[in-house]
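Hi V.,

You were right to ask for the full record rather than a summary. Here it is.
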Amino acid sequence: PEMQALALLLWTGALLGLGRCQNAGPEAGSLAPESTGAPVEEEDPFFKVPVNKLAAAISNFGYDLYRMRSGESPTANVLLSPLSVATALSALSLGAEQRTESIIHRALYYDLISNPDIHGTYKDLLASVTAPQKNLKSASRIIFEKKLRIKASFIPPLEKSYGTRPRILTGNSRIDLQEINNWVQAQMKGKVSRSTREMPSEISIFLLGVAYFKGQWVTKFDSRKTSLEDFHLDEERTVKVPMMSDPKAVLRYGLDSDLNCKIAQLPLTGSTSIIFFLPQRVTQNLTLIEESLTSEFIHDIDRELKTVQAVLAIPKLKLSYEGELTKSVQELKQ
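Predicted structure:
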């Protein structure tokens, strides 16, 4: 079977909330009792739960970061763990001056959240996302240059909400690099061997984020039905890839006529799923799909897709990425 270039998204209930929530109360667009007649859109009750609203904000930060990286390298694969990046930024904001805190909060969409205990809520979010059944390991760390002085009041709330302590560089790049990579190996239980090949030069604050996820299909594919098939990267480039297939796959499926793509959601263990966006035509650019990604859009997809039985063929996935996000993060919400 022919397969086109696709975009995929890992979706977990804890990244957009702790579970599904049915709509209740006035319908969107209904008239408010004391309004002047203008329709008022009700907020989805799902997003009224503090941890859900925070998760949606972090997700939107992730989509912004993804679009930034995709725009920088349009033909390259993009693999990100926005949670670990957002966690490091959110933790840093605890000790930031007002202007820097405001910049970080805008990038993380915190300025749209009315939550006086946002860091306490973040602790709950981390506990849910990294629960053992999720099969996700994520860790973040703030590393300071030796000459910087850290406020003593910064450390207790950092430990309380984010479970980490800041690290001070020794000034010896070889020793610092070894210590950082040892920390990564310990946090990831040996699943990730290092976070960086060399220490960045001339840094004052080094935000380190690392993640490892190993998904398990709820219904496993029969390895005997995996074969090399064509995968279309674009209208000109085709490669052979191992393609897993299931003639009677049960999945959630929909067709988005506005984006001109098929959408398939496959369940993984731990109340997690993976969403595939497949353009209808090989020549179609993924930009329109990428620009549409928001936490609200993904929440709507999760509610609207229908369970079907279908012939399914998808590439066998093993993705890894190592890179510096300094420039991309700096350009967000400036």
